[in-house]
Write a structure and sequence with these properties.
The complex is a heterodimer of chains A (about 280) and B (about 250). By secondary structure, chain A is mainly alpha-helical. Chain A is about 70% helix and about 0% strand. In chain A, α1 (about 25-40) packs across α13 and α4 packs antiparallel against α7. Chain A is globular, with a radius of gyration of 20 Å. Chain B starts with a strand and ends with a helix. The interface of A and B includes residues 4, 10, 11, 12 and 124 of A.
């Protein structure tokens, strides 16, 4: 069976049309994923426009994100450093990086739930790879993340964080985090298009997970119960970004856990995308 | 060469009633051994059933039928957004599905920004959009308005803009769900001219309409859809009379 739709732009591979041929349980989803990646010009544009849309008439624009995160981190940093009896120069950078990274994880996960539902008007008119709508959400969240992670510079200056070579590990860390959120986004987008309760379920889970993960408290405060942090994949996901920014190389285990998560996650995401491809539009 | 071929194509749309779209229903069904929630849970609408259709290069097809007869579903199948749940669909050629021409408009963005965003959604490359901006400025006569947010536009101005963007690309297959009809008389004339120019250059046109006049004027053949099946397909006059008789 062949269906050659021409609504893809020049930079979208027309041969990757998901209806074209059924080669195996993964091929349709893999085609959608690669066609979606190739359409980067479209989703970066849509994602950026979403940000503009949100802040268009405000004076500070997207820097509201920076400002509100700065206030949030300052307040929590001061209060919780007292509660945990930690030195503020150690605690504030820790909680800042943790909260900012967590914001990216929770934001991408929750907003991806409505990726297809919010774009149902487009989906019912123009044939685009489904991953385009997920990547639009991710791009939007990445812009927000970049507007908040810059806070590490003034924080570093105030609290005397020194540059170390471990800082460079932030780049593979960020790439891995982004890659991980891509599969998470695809999975929750497909599932919540079909089952509308998934959004609520995930919002609840994310809220609880924030307190069960070492973000506001250091993993060391668990004492002998380190296992609580180590079995939590979210801990490792944060650690690959947080450690380098605080001047330490992340533990090898954290890298391995995230790479493993991605391997399993992409299998699930591509399988769901393959199975859902011909049905998603009918669920909207 | 554009070509459309449908073999026994059907579209069955599951309708999930409130609560049916939820995890609870699925889990409960599992928990109580497959009985709960099944009775009457999966209402299925058969939007199209066993459609066989061959549309060749150069043909202009009018779609007629009552509301809910499957005209929009058929157009969505041709646009590639509704995969057939049974049968085969083969569409060869660049398709422009003009169902909702204001697709992707952001009210707070300026006219120019919307040209870029919507143009990209319509599948235009950056170069095509840049090259088309002058054409849009000419056609819409919006002038300086293009530099301010479209939320300040009147309905007519907004229509001019979205129409100009949607018609920027010359498709091989043009799909129209009801011919666009708002705006002042002068603009209507201009829009009709532009649409007819694009339609005449397209290799295949499929247009659904409730107006016999439009079908007679634009089309060489017609399809009468009746409750998801083809009631008649052929010469415009004979299909129209079958439709009005049936």
């Amino acid at each position: 069976m062949q269906l050659e739709s021409a609504t893809y732009g020049d930079d979208i591979d027309q041969n990757a049309h998901p209806h074209m041929k059924a080669r195996g349980p993964f091929s349709i989803g893999a085609d959608d994923l690669s066609a979606g990646l190739k359409a980067w010009r479209l989703w970066t544009m849509l994602g950026w426009n979403d940000i503009l849309q949100r802040y268009r008439r405000s004076v500070l624009g997207p820097f509201w994100i920076t400002l509100s995160m700065a206030l949030y981190v300052m307040l929590l940093g001061v209060v919780y450093s007292r509660i945990f009896k930690m030195e503020i120069a150690l605690y504030l950078p820790y909680i800042a990086v943790g909260l900012i990274t967590w914001g990216f994880i929770s934001g991408t996960t929750i907003e991806s739930c409505s990726a297809f539902v919010d774009s149902s008007g487009i989906i019912k008119q123009i044939r685009l790879p489904f991953t385009v709508y997920v990547f639009r959400v991710l791009w939007r969240s990445l812009i927000i993340f970049l507007h908040t992670i810059v806070l590490i510079i003034p924080i570093g200056i105030i609290f005397g964080l020194k540059f170390s070579w471990a800082d460079i590990l932030i780049f593979p860390g960020l790439i891995l985090l982004f890659a991980n959120q891509m599969w998470v986004g695809i999975v929750v987008a497909v599932l919540s298009a079909r089952y509308r309760d998934v959004v609520q379920l995930i919002a609840t889970a994310i809220q609880i997970a924030m307190f069960a993960t070492p973000i506001m408290w250091p993993a060391s405060s668990l004492g002998t119960a380190q296992i609580i942090a180590q079995v939590n994949p979210l801990y490792h996901l944060i650690e690959i970004v947080r450690s380098p920014l605080l001047g330490e190389a992340p533990p090898l285990l954290s890298w391995l856990v995230v790479i493993g998560l991605c391997a399993v996650g992409y299998l699930i995401a591509i399988l769901l995308l393959s199975r859902g491809n011909r049905r998603i539009v009918y669920w909207l | 060469m554009a070509h459309i071929n449908l073999r026994d194509a059907s579209v069955e749309i599951p309708v999930y009633a409130v609560g049916n779209n939820s995890l609870k229903t699925m889990l409960l069904r599992k928990a109580v051994g497959g009985r709960f929630g099944r009775s009457g849970s999966n209402v299925i609408i058969t939007a199209l059933s066993g459609i066989d259709l061959d549309i060749h290069d150069g043909e202009r097809i009018g779609l007629v039928g009552h509301n809910g007869s499957g005209k929009t579903s058929l157009l969505r199948v041709l646009a590639g957004v509704y995969p057939p749940t049974k049968g085969e669909v083969n569409v060869v050629g660049r398709v422009s599905p003009m169902f909702d021409i204001s697709l992707g408009m952001s009210v707070d963005a300026t006219g120019i920004e919307n040209i870029k965003i919507c143009g990209a959604l319509w599948g235009l490359s950056k170069q095509e959009i840049e090259a088309g901006i002058d054409d849009i400025v000419d056609f819409t006569e919006l002038g300086d308005y293009l530099n301010i947010p479209v939320r300040t536009y009147s309905a007519g101005m907004l229509l001019r803009l979205s129409f100009a963007i949607a018609t920027l690309r010359q498709p091989e297959i043009l799909l129209l769900d009801e011919v666009i009809g708002v705006g002042d008389a002068e603009f209507m004339k201009k829009a009709e001219g532009r649409l007819e120019k694009i339609a005449s250059r397209a290799n295949i046109l499929v247009v659904s309409s409730h107006s016999d006049d439009i079908i007679r004027r634009l089309c060489t053949k017609a399809i009468w859809l009746n409750q998801g099946v083809v009631g008649a397909f052929g010469e415009v006059e004979s299909v129209l009379s079958a439709y009005h008789a049936g």
